[in-house]
Write a structure and sequence with these properties.
The protein is 17% helix and 37% strand.
Length: 246
């Protein structure tokens, strides 16, 4: 089920600097039927961005992380609870905006993909996987990010002098998607993969995080339109020679 979630970009503090009430968020969330509401992930990312502006990026990231959360870095997998507390929060944040959300039919698992901009004005892309906690809030499980190489021309990126500036290229909409709510024909996509799959609790999303050769890999399969489809296929450079020292 593919839902073009327009106007949600207006709810992003990172894009407009505006703050929306819980009631306004709830109205946005009704753009998708049933338990799966992609706009809840957008709202959660906006909430985390506001927390980053108030408390520091790494403190906020840890507050929104699952206990087992990991950062899939270029030099190896890092346990968020061990790594983030050692980072300096005093510098400027790197604001971000989601552009794509995929969510399982039951709303228990989601993936967001978007763009960020660092303090030097460089831009890149990121991926975050989310799960719904017992509290009902979403907490992130995995995160990976990388700068564009090469960087786009300077006029294609926005200024970072204002932390509430539009992050990248004037994002105007967010593509929200929900997998089919019919039972998948197989427990996982019938494809050959070098990475072991993990499935959402309802079996309607299947994903792979990991390393292959000199790359970080993320692949997301969704059961949509009655079949498994590869909906996100991301690969970024990695160098694991120093991973043992992490």
């Amino acid at each position: 089920m593919r839902l073009a979630v327009f106007a949600i970009a207006l709810a992003l503090a990172g894009c407009t600097g505006r703050s929306y009430s819980d009631d306004q968020y709830q109205r946005l969330m009704r753009s998708a039927p049933g338990a799966a509401q992609p706009s809840r992930i957008v709202a959660r990312e906006s909430e985390m961005l506001r927390a980053a502006q108030d408390k520091g990026q790494f403190t906020a990231s840890l507050e929104f992380a699952a206990a087992s959360a990991k950062v899939v870095s270029a030099s190896g997998e890092l346990v968020a609870a061990e790594w983030l507390p050692n980072l300096d929060d005093s510098g400027p944040i790197a604001p971000w905006s989601p552009a794509l959300v995929w969510m399982s039919c039951d709303g228990a698992f989601a993936v967001s993909q978007g763009r960020f901009q660092n303090a030097a004005g460089q831009v890149g892309s990121y991926l975050t996987s989310w799960r719904r906690a017992r509290s009902g809030d979403y907490e992130w499980l995995h995160n990976a990010a990388a700068l564009d190489d090469p960087q786009p021309p300077p006029e294609a990126t926005s200024s970072v002098s204002d932390p509430n500036a539009i992050v990248v290229e004037g994002l105007e909409s967010i593509d929200g998607n929900v997998s089919d709510c019919t039972a998948p024909t197989s427990a996982a996509p019938p494809v050959a993969e070098d990475l072991a799959p993990t499935n959402s609790p309802d079996g309607t999303l299947s994903w792979r995080w990991g390393y292959s050769g000199s790359a970080r890999i993320f692949r997301l399969y969704a059961f949509t339109d009655g079949e498994w489809s590869l909906v996100v296929d991301e690969s970024w450079p990695a160098d694991l020679r120093g991973a043992r020292a992490q």
